[in-house]
Hints:
single chain, mainly alpha, 2 helices, 5% strand
Amino acid sequence: MSQSPDKSGGAFGTASPLSESNSSGAVLPENRAESAPNERLRTVIRAFHAEVGSPLAAVAIRLELLRNRESLDPATSALIEELSRSIGEVIESVRRSLKDLRDLESTSRWQP
């Protein structure tokens, strides 16, 4: 008597991060050689966005709040302006890098 796969990941109840369900809910294993690198790339993209992109955006917002204060001396205003430009350039670079990574993932050109 064999056990049938369940929605939690198979005959023994262990879920696989590299599996998907068909319309009946049965878990279908994917080709690990093809999907593992793409899954890793997706993980890197998410981490890069969360750990680099979001904090940079927060810094840019804080600089903008500082820039809008009326009581800043000219030297401080100039420094904030310079920092804002620099952060903006870094944010654009991060956006381009993330776009390139997403394009790479979507075209499945990723090779281990």
